[in-house]
Amino acid sequence: MTNNMRPKGLTLSIIFEAESANYGESVGNVASLKKVARGKGEQYTYISRQAIRYNIVEQLGEPLANVKAEGSGDKKVIQFDEDSTIKDYPELDFFGYLKTKKGTGGKKRAAKVRLSNAIALEPFKGDLDYLTNKGLADRLNENMNIAQAEIHRSFYRYTIAADLDQIGIDEEYDIEISNEEKTRRVNKLLDTIAFLYRDIRGRREDLKPLFIIGGLYDIKNPIFQNVLVVKDNRLVIEQIEGVLFDNIKDDTSCGLINGCFDNDIEIKSRLNVRSMPEFFSTLKAKVNQYYAGS
Known about the structure:
Blueprint: E1 9-19, E2 30-31, E3 35-38, E4 42-47, H1 49-59, E5 67-70, E6 77-80, H2 90-95, E7 97-99, E8 107-109, E9 113-115, E10 118-120, E11 128-132, H3 134-140, E12 146-150, E13 153-163, E14 169-170, E15 175-176, H4 179-194, E16 197-200, E17 203-206, E18 211-217, E19 230-231, E20 234-235, H5 237-241, H6 246-249, E21 253-256, H7 264-270, E22 273-275, H8 276-292
Parallel strand pairs: 2-12, 21-22
Antiparallel strand pairs: 1-13, 1-18, 3-4, 4-10, 5-6, 7-8, 9-13, 10-13, 11-12, 14-15, 16-17, 18-21, 19-20
Helix pairs in contact: 4-8
């Protein structure tokens, strides 16, 4: 199979606001948030790319690929079924697969839609939530159980990068879906990102973008991944402008929800800002145009 599509990358970097959205292992009776350390030891919570992928697949509204378990005990492996292909399952098309088979090299597909971790833009200060089951314990006149959980509310940033010219094409199975179906899938992915959320510990955290920047490019670099910074509730625009090369600037636009940052007026005056609905509508139109002309 020969791929004759023009190389094209879709890159989006997103800022959203959420609280305590990804826990790791507990330490004693304290539930610990996933964190990384930077600089002089400051800690920043994060939401793993696997967690974000899970929520995207869950909310795409597409059939889930069949899986199977092979082996036993500690060697049991859960993987996608041999007959599950990108033809029927967008999750395999977007995020790839690895299918092992004894005596062969198996089959694999690299992700065509790649995600970064969502890293907090504000440091973790060690806040804890005090948890009890008092309501239930009182019903039986018993002593309540006590636990604690780390909590952190912050702006987060993450990046999604898609290889549009490789969506819908799988040489392992000699499959290529129609350009109409490629368009539908990518646009549905964009719709999902626009209203993404995450259910955790009885809460529904809103992961939809408050600020988003990106577009369709002839390069596939995650251009804005490391330049979205918020300080004192102000988006730092200088770092964004620092990567707006001539071949990138014309293809770049931003979406902004008013009132989230203290320098909204400055953002609008220095960047190509649209309302969030307009940003996604314009981006989907460019996706339609790309596949229609390929």
